Amino acid sequence: MLVSSIARFNSVNTLNNAVSASIQAASNMANITNSAHTFGGEHDLSMLNKMDNKLSLDLLSNKLLYKITFLQEKMASKQKNNCVKQSLNLLA
């Protein structure tokens, strides 16, 4: 029971971290877009493109991490419910 609780707390923590990182990456992308008018020249545009690609990959990886940990949390709660049902069946 303790191990499953620790695993669930871990997955909730990972969920929160993934959401926070996604929000940070989206905020950075918005800041880059808002300040794009301050950049000029081909070099700066290639730098903006690299930053955009990196932040897009960050968003995708955080989204995937969120989905994986959400499914882990769902599976852990389902397993906990099954264990409770089995223990109630044994007591009855």
The count of strands amounts to: 0
Number of helices: 2
Mean pLDDT: 79
> How does the major sheet shape up?
none
Strand content: under 5%
Helix content: over 70%
Listing every helix as H and every strand as E from the N terminus to the C terminus, the arrangement reads HH
Rg (CA only): 21 Å
SSE class = mainly alpha
Q: What gross morphology would you assign? A: rod-shaped
- Regions with little confidence, pLDDT below 50 for 5+ residues: none
Cα-to-Cα separation, first versus last residue:
21 Å
Plain-language structure description:
By secondary structure, this protein is mainly alpha-helical. Helices cover 91% and strands 0% of the residues. It has helices at residues 2-34, 41-91. Helix 1 runs antiparallel to helix 2. The longest helix is centred in the C-terminal third of the chain and has 51 residues, at 41-91. The chain is rod-shaped and about 75 Å long. The two termini are 21 Å apart.
Any descriptors?
92 residues; rod-shaped; mainly alpha
Please outline what is shown here:
With 92 residues, the protein is mainly alpha-helical.
Outline the fold blueprint:
Layout: H1 2-34, H2 41-91
Helix pairs in contact: 1-2
